[in-house]
Design a protein that fits this description.
- This protein is of the alpha+beta class.
- It has 3 domains: 51-239, no CATH class; 255-374 and 460-481, no CATH class; 489-673, Immunoglobulin-like (Sandwich), CATH 2.60.40.
- The protein contains 17 helices and 21 strands.
- A 7-stranded mixed β-sheet has the order 13-14-11-8-16-21-18. It has a 7-stranded mixed β-sheet with strand order 12-15-10-9-17-20-19, covered by helices on one side.
- The protein is globular and about 125 Å long.
- The model is unreliable at 1-7 and 52-62 (pLDDT under 50).
């Protein structure tokens, strides 16, 4: 029917003539019927199109009205929430609470209006518009939750304000009844604070779903800033919630409490934080420290040295040269709950044997807990509260440690003070710090809580509670100083100063840890420890002598060890870990280098085959490692890793390195392809 020209191109003229010929062959009647049918279909189509247009126009007018209402309501909510925050900051809690409630109502209404769009068939099925509505829904939901949270928070602020009204706003100026009222609010606040935190988590979850693909794009920076502020609030609540559970109890509410205090000198490092040079007994009641005594540890140990007999651990006997075990050396365990219980037992046993003339403690009760601190917490507190003055001497955050050590080790001789009384100044220092802390205004207490939280994380404060639930809370927050029971690779290096004076103050430590997968698929670890001695021979420092224990996953197999004295290394199990223990001596100006190679247990190899590797590095209390390098290469592509940031270097697809310090515990996680 269609013919091609010789040029093999389509001949359009022939096509036209052929089509016309076919059309002409159709009878006239049939052509009319077909035209009528076509016009009928076209007519129906035009009617439907017009109907659809009219419906669409009406819907547009209807939805335009809703859009206007949605925008107006969101603007109103934003204005009300800003006014609520300003009112709260100006301590107008009642009006602030009302404004927060109105803002919550505004955003709830806005959310309902946005939901109408989300239910619309066209919007739901057009991806671009659907994303816009989803963004609005997530934003209004977050704003509604935040408004509710502000309203809840204002209740607590108002309750505190009622107690503090018309007062010079510091804890010392409050009556006992007012202190009880404040502690009662804090003591009962935990469930509501947990609820507030849950709301913050939900608001953040909604904000994290935002795609910023259209109408919210201009507000991306502001919303990102809001998200950062909420993250800060969340972190703060993570600290405040556990503190709200045990701080009132520690301050003697709802019942008075007694605590054994242990002051550990980290410049003379011992397994749980430092040499116990001073101890104390504190009684708290209704928010006040009603009694606080501190004593030189030798006032407890010396009077009973001929009648108290207890076999010391072998390393103390061998390297410290002692034949008996006393309270001052009872913190031999790096696990604080173990050392705390041991210290308490030693205290009771020695105290019961004190001759009548040496009975200094006057205590026959039961301790609710044992609290250990290192000088670092005092330094951090002095940095916030300012200097204190004792015996016409200024102690501040820059001179505290060295000045106090000089006074109790050297100056007392020059002043003709009996050695027995040389540490009485410590009781005066503690008293002055208490006065300054209790005189702080409420707005400064948030900073102090942060200082306490930081030092709990860094193990400059360690607490052991006999109450099972409170101790469980501390363990969950990693504030108990307990050795972690970790399912993965693990490393903890524990030093014990063996008669080296205060030499730890001049030792710079570094830890290097490598893990490699060998040809047979086994995970091989290399641990490199370096001790740089920057001191000399004087009244404070001497050659460094440490008995070191390295805790690794249980079942690890030692391959090689070098650098320790006499190449002697002991291997045993403790706290569900394998321990490598050795003695090291470092002269002033020299560097001690230790290298230990070992094979990790097979379950860690199996874990790496399944695609994950986890490492937990636990910090010894009182010990700061300034240089830590973790080098991991498991011969597999690393898909994900944490932590990330400036301290991590991705060498290649299989190799990753972290370089940082170890001031608190550190966890490293890898997801890998095999």
């Amino acid at each position: 029917m269609f013919k091609l020209s010789k040029s093999k191109n389509l001949n359009l003229l022939s096509v036209y003539l052929g089509a016309k010929h076919i059309y002409d062959d159709i009878p006239y009647i049939k052509r009319r019927r077909r035209l009528k049918r076509a016009f009928f279909v076209l007519k129906i189509f035009l009617i439907l199109f017009l109907l659809f247009f009219i419906i669409g126009f009406i819907s547009f007018v209807f939805y335009f009205k809703d859009v206007k209402n949605l925008y107006t309501t969101m603007v109103s909510g934003k204005r009300n929430i800003e006014e609520a925050v300003n009112l709260l900051l100006n301590e107008n809690f009642e009006e602030g609470k009302i404004k927060a409630g109105i803002a919550q109502s505004d955003f709830s209404q806005a959310n309902e209006l946005a939901q109408k769009y989300d239910d619309n068939f066209l919007i739901k099925n057009i991806s671009y518009f659907n994303n816009q509505i989803n963004d609005v829904l997530y934003l209004t939901s977050s704003a509604e939750i935040i408004s509710k949270t502000i309203e809840q928070s204002s209740n607590y602020a108002e309750a505190f304000e009622k107690v503090l009204a018309n007062k010079e706003k510091n804890f010392n100026k409050l009556s006992e009844e007012e202190k009880i009222a404040l502690l009662d609010i804090l003591f009962k606040s935990t469930p509501d604070l947990v609820g507030i935190k849950a709301n913050i988590d939900l608001a953040l979850l909604n904000l994290n779903y935002l795609k910023f693909s259209g109408i919210l794009l201009p507000y991306k920076t502001k919303i990102s800033n809001l998200r950062e502020k909420l993250e800060t609030v969340k972190t703060t609540l993570d600290t405040i919630i556990p503190l709200s559970q045990f701080v009132p109890i520690m301050l003697g509410y709802p019942a008075e409490a007694d605590y054994l205090l242990v002051l550990q000198n980290s410049d003379e490092l011992r397994p749980s934080g430092g040499f116990v040079g001073t101890y104390g007994i504190a009684k708290t009641k209704n928010g006040d420290i009603v009694n606080l005594e501190t004593h030189d540890v030798y006032h407890l140990d010396i009077p009973v040295q001929d009648i108290y007999q207890k076999e010391p651990p072998a390393p103390l006997k061998e390297y410290l040269g002692v034949d008996n075990w006393y309270f001052r050396d009872a913190n031999w365990y790096p696990d604080w709950p173990s050392s705390a219980q041991n210290l308490e037992q030693f205290f009771y046993e020695e105290d019961s044997l004190l001759p009548e003339k040496n009975k200094i403690n006057n205590y026959d009760g039961n301790f609710e807990g044992i609290i250990a601190i290192t000088p670092k917490i005092i330094v951090d507190l002095l940095e916030q509260i300012g200097p204190i003055y004792v015996e016409d001497t200024e102690f501040n955050h820059t001179n505290f440690i060295n000045l106090l050590q000089y006074k109790v080790e050297q100056e007392y001789i020059q002043l003709g003070v009996r050695e027995w009384h040389r540490k009485e100044i410590i009781a005066e220092i503690v008293k002055e710090i208490k006065i300054k802390l209790f005189n702080l205004e409420p707005n400064a207490m948030y900073t102090i809580l942060n200082v306490i939280s930081k030092n709990l994380n860094e193990k400059n404060i360690q607490i052991y509670f006999k109450d099972v639930e409170l101790e469980k809370l501390l363990v969950e927050k990693n504030w108990a100083g307990a050795i972690q029971n970790y399912n993965g690779d693990y490393l903890m290096v524990v030093d014990a100063n063996m008669a080296s004076y205060k030499t730890d103050a001049v030792i710079n430590r570094s830890i290097g840890y490598k893990v490699r997968k060998n040809n047979t698929g086994e995970l091989i670890s290399n641990l490199a420890l370096n001790y740089a001695h920057n001191g000399d021979f004087d009244w404070k420092t001497t050659r460094y002598r440490t008995y070191t224990r390295v805790y690794v996953p249980r079942g690890s197999q030692l391959i090689n060890a070098t650098g320790m004295d006499n190449s002697d290394i002991k291997v045993y199990d403790e706290y569900n870990k394998t321990v490598y223990a050795f003695f090291l001596n470092v002269e002033p100006g020299e560097i001690g280098n230790i290298s230990i190679d070992y094979k990790l247990p097979d379950d860690l190899r199996q874990s790496s085959i399944s695609g994950k590797y986890n490492l937990y590095l636990q910090k010894q209390a009182g010990n700061t490692v300034d240089d830590l390098k973790i080098d991991l290469d498991l011969n597999a592509n690393i898909k994900e890793f944490s932590p990330n940031g400036f301290l991590v270097d991705r060498i290649d697809k299989n190799n990753i390195v972290w370089e940082t310090s170890l001031r608190s515990d550190l966890e490293i996680n890898l997801k890998i392809d095999n």
